[in-house]
Design brief:
Elements lengths: L1 E6 L2 H16 L3 E7 L2 H9 L5 E4 L5 H22 L3 E5 L2 H10 L2 E5 L6 H7 L6 E4 L10 E4 L18 H5 L8 E6 L16 H9 L4 E6 L19 H7 L2 E4 L2 H9 L4 E4 L5 H8 L4 E4 L4 H14 L3 H14 L3 H29 L1
Parallel strand pairs: 1-2, 1-4, 2-3, 4-5, 5-6, 6-7, 8-9, 8-10, 10-11, 11-12
Length: 358
């Protein structure tokens, strides 16, 4: 089969990379289309995934609108040229629109309820919308829920084995305690109007008072006072560092979840919430969400409490309970793409049969 996969965010590279390898190993034809996002391109290059860049970066609302229109037009051209059996993406309106325009099977994944604009543009045109079972919105009859998280497409034990050499990469000994802190730039369409920390330097100082080291990973700039805390590790090795961390705290729901599924407690600080981080808190006690006006103070207080009473066995037990309930998401992705291709094949054979009879 011929498959088009579109990438809009670095996390999407991780979500699809094992699927891409499996499809290619089975001699299927996979085409990856992406926007010009430096970190996503860096990861695609690292994993040896070939791709076509369809549009440049945009850093303002006007450029975002123009860029999206250009991107959609280029996706249309690619679908018309490649004539795929299936097109798939995470929350991407362009593939839903292309599937309708060219009568192609689309496989749309999403886990972000508050991506309201993208969802409104994509859902009416999608053939199927696949969501984790903790997704809090009801999309209707085209929604298919599954027991998993996006992050289990690449961090499930079937897919990930931690590499302890990452510790020496950042100057740590196995006995050293440390925290990973994540800052986002709030430029994504679904992040507009959201915010997280108010004083990053204060967060770092408060956590380090417990005796841990704090490493910062950021999409954009870092306050000068904590610039020396930037994480000195290659992006594709961050998950290994998260596995060995004592705590994650940050403005990224994705990284909070990545930490949780690796058995590291995660603290998510943002004015918005997610169904999956809510479930990881309420059902498994692996993530703690803080979204109110005093979110920074509450988050730091919880972080200090976790560090003061740290017990790795507790987090491992919670992780195992979660994994017992969830699936290897990559297997689910591959299954849905194959299922969609089979549907298209059945429709085409039926159409040929009718034409032959007439």
């Amino acid at each position: 089969m011929r498959v088009i996969i579109t990438i809009q965010h670095p996390a999407h590279v991780h979500f699809f990379r094992h699927t891409i390898r499996a499809l290619q190993a089975a001699e299927h034809d996979v085409h990856v289309l992406t926007r010009e996002r430096p970190m996503a391109l860096l990861l695609l290059d690292h994993y040896g995934i070939e791709y076509d860049v369809l549009t440049g970066p945009f850093d303002s609302p006007v450029k975002m609108v123009v860029g999206q229109l250009r991107y959609e037009y280029n996706v249309f051209k690619a679908v018309r040229r490649l004539d795929p059996d299936v097109i798939t993406a995470i929350g991407e309106p362009a593939i839903a629109h292309s599937s309708t325009l060219f009568d192609v099977e689309s496989v749309l994944f999403t886990d972000t309820e508050h991506a309201t604009l993208g969802n409104a543009l994509a859902f009416p045109f999608a053939r199927r919308v696949y969501t984790p079972d903790c997704y809090e919105d009801d999309i209707g009859s085209k929604q298919v829920r599954y027991p998993g998280y996006h992050e289990l497409a690449y961090l499930h034990p079937n897919r990930f084995e931690p590499d302890p050499s990452v510790l020496s990469d950042v100057g740590l000994d196995p006995a050293d305690r440390f925290v990973v802190l994540r800052l986002v730039d709030w430029n994504a369409a679904h992040d507009v109007g959201d915010s997280g920390f108010e004083d990053v330097a204060d967060v770092v100082e408060s956590l380090e008072d417990t005796g841990v080291r704090v490493f910062i990973t950021a999409e954009g700039g870092v306050p000068e006072a904590v610039e020396d805390h930037r994480l000195p590790v290659e992006p594709h090795r961050v998950h290994h560092l998260l596995y060995y961390a004592d705590l994650f705290i940050g403005e990224s729901a994705t990284m909070a979840t990545e930490s949780a599924v690796l058995g590291t407690p995660g603290i998510f600080v943002s004015t918005s919430r997610r169904g999956y981080t809510n479930e990881l808190e309420e059902r498994y006690g692996l993530v703690f969400n803080f979204s109110g006006q005093d979110r920074q103070t509450q988050a730091v207080t919880r972080g200090i409490s976790i560090l003061d009473d740290y017990d790795q066995e507790t987090w491992d037990d919670r992780r195992e309970r979660m994994l017992a309930d969830k699936i290897d998401t990559t297997q689910f992705i591959i299954g849905r793409i194959t299922e969609a291709a089979d549907r298209r094949d059945r429709v085409e054979r039926s159409s040929r049969d009718r034409a032959a009879r007439s």
